[in-house]
What does this fold into?
Amino acid sequence: MPALFRFLVRHAIIGFSGAAFLVAALIATDTAGFGRVIRQSDSGLLAACLVVYFLGLTFASVQIGIALMTGQATPDDDRPFRTRSPGRDRRGWWR
It folds into this structure.
């Protein structure tokens, strides 16, 4: 499996598990009557699954963005990703 695919799947799983935990906590604590509405509704399970899905998309996107911005992405050879700074080039700007 390519490293990029593993990276995306790993961080998407982290985001979706965070969303599932948040929805479970909202239902358990009955925040703003959310748990009661989910439990008493005929399609409460469908509503809870949709909330987990859409929150999971959001959390997974944020998790992937944070991982990319903090430099946790690694190329295929598993060395840390480093950018080349133009000021660090020993040959100079004219070459």
Notes: The radius of gyration is 21 Å. Helices lie at 3-29, 34-40, 44-69.
